[in-house]
Design brief:
alpha/beta, Rossmann fold, 2 domains, 14 helices, His_Pase_clade-2, hydrolase
Length: 471
Amino acid sequence: MRYFLKSMEHSIWPSSAVHLIPVSTAKNGVSSKSRKRIMPDPVTEPPVTDPVYEALLYCNIPSVAERSMEGHAPHHFKLVSVHVFIRHGDRYPLYVIPKTKRPEIDCTLVANRKPYHPKLEAFVSHMSKGSGASFESPLNSLPLYPNHPLCEMGELTQTGVVQHLQNGQLLRDIYLKKHKLLPNDWSADQLYLETTGKSRTLQSGLALLYGFLPDFDWKKIYFRHQPSALFCSGSCYCPVRNQYLEKEQRRQYLLRLKNSQLEKTYGEMAKIVDVPTKQLRAANPIDSMLCHLCHNVSFPCTRNGCVDMEHFKVIKTHQIEDERERREKKLYLGYSLLGAHPILNQTIGRMQRATEGRKEELFALYSAHDVTLSPVLSALGLSEARFPRFAARLIFELWQDREKPNEHSVRILYNGVDVTFHTSFCQDHHKRSPKPMCPLENLVRFVKRDMFVALGGSSTNYYDACHREGF
């Protein structure tokens, strides 16, 4: 069971459509010692959709090490390459609720403060010496770790760093210690690292690598810059994809208009902060409210009253309803098939080179956003997968059958759960084969042909599908 939490970062809109509200960076608000606790204790998944439970899953607060299914295969299979897509970790909001004090979150990294990770102190020490690192421009101008006593808008938090140190440690135990994916004398060309130009994605990628690599050698770390959140490189111009997006935005808008309780809630919140309802809605208050929830800080109050959990539940419940309708209408699927094609095409290209015995790019890491992972999940047919939480990870594993060396298979895992047989291209395969994975050719055929068939029309390649007339 899965419910979609609409992106607090860009929704599904391109970044050019996001208008941030200027905020003061002055230190204000209550001290951390006087924060009111609003954190329920999630133990087991409730039988009925609980908006607060769903939001806490999205927060992904670090706790005990999770069980995961990465790296599971019969003993006669050899791991050939691994391709990891992550969403950045927990961040400070990109929006502020008008006329309220910003949540006071400390974005310096303190080793003995919760959430804790045994590698946190060494990570800070190593990053502080990394000024000589060479990254593709403009990444070389970004800070390597968060370091502000009052978080800046969109900045990675200590929680976000710890989430990815944990991810890296987990993947190290599986892929390096167990499966020996990289040799002891691994070289820079055996890693492929790519990130968008945001400090939160670069820092998340560095935290994961620091947890993953046996020795973090700056001379071997080179991040490429990806200007598009879709990681479409030189294939970003796609008019039909944009048309799907416009139709999906229209669907979202009409659904919101029908929700009288949502409009009433926005109206109540607007009165509390003394701004027009339209201005409050444009400020995307759920983004800031999620920060309060994830960091266990009380919602803001003014002399007119307090924003409260009931307001939060109404907005969050609407998001769940929005995703139900989104799955039914299929407009987002059309957007996703075209939006995810370039990065999936790159991935199968790397896999195919690995099957030829090439030893470069054995481990690929894309440090990205919710608007990167969400279209990929949708395009793969993983309609039941939850919306990308903070520090979500989607992994493609490529395996070789030692008994039949010419046969290669893939496994796909989302947050440690094997979802291979939930994908549209491998749903039926396990009924015909005892192998716990999918033939690589199924994924290749899906990316090269079936993605376009799913769009309808007569297009057989990405360019034609993007420029189809009469859509």
